[in-house]
TrEMBL record:
EC number(s) per entry: 1.13.11.79
Biological source species: Sporomusa sphaeroides DSM 2875
Keywords, sorted A to Z: Flavoprotein, FMN, Oxidoreductase
InterPro entries to which the protein is assigned, alphabetical: Nitroreductase, Nitroreductase-like
Protein name: 5,6-dimethylbenzimidazole synthase
Cofactor: FMN
GO molecular function, one term: 5,6-dimethylbenzimidazole synthase activity
Domain Nitroreductase: 9-70
One family name in Pfam for this protein: Nitroreductase
Family as reported in the entry's similarity comment: Belongs to the nitroreductase family.
Amino acid sequence: MTKDIFDCIRQSHSIRNFRSEQIPDATLTRILEAGNMAPSAGNLQPWYFYVVQDVSVKEKIAAAAFDQEQINEAPTVIVITADPARSNELYGERGAQLYCIQDTAAAAQNILLAAEGLGVAACWVGAFNETKVEEAIKAPPRLRAVAIICLGYSNEQPKEYKERLRLAEVAKFIH
C-alpha cells in the first residue's frame, strides 16, 4: 500500500541513518520505474540510473561526496546521470546545459516520492566531485553525474514536519 502523494510531499525529509536491511528488488524496481516516468523535454529521457549496492563502490562515492557517511550506510545508492548529448540533439546548447539537468532533477524527485510512498527512506546528495563519482561508477564520458540518492530503511526517530515559507512569500499570482 502506498501513501497519498500529498502525504508523501509533506512527510518526506532527508534520512542519514539507515538500517542494514536491503530493499526488496520489487520495491526497488517500482522506485526506479517512477524515476523513469518523469517528464522530460521532448520526451528524450536523458537519464541513466546507476544502482549501487557494492560496498567498495559506495565507499568511493562517499569519498567523492566529501565523506558523507549516509552513502556508506544506505543499503542502496542511486547515482542519477544525465546525457547532455541526447538533449543537445533536439535542443542544442540549452538542452545540453539546462534541460537534461531539469529532466534528471524531475526523475530524482519522482524517485524520492516513490520511495516515501513505499516506506523507503531517502536522502538526496548534491555535494560531490562529479568526476570522481563518474569514475567510481565507471560511467562513459558522455554521462554527467547529477544527483546521488541514498535509499534504505530509516534508523532515525520520526521528525516533526519541516517548517516551510508561507505560500505568499514564494508565489505571485499574475492575472
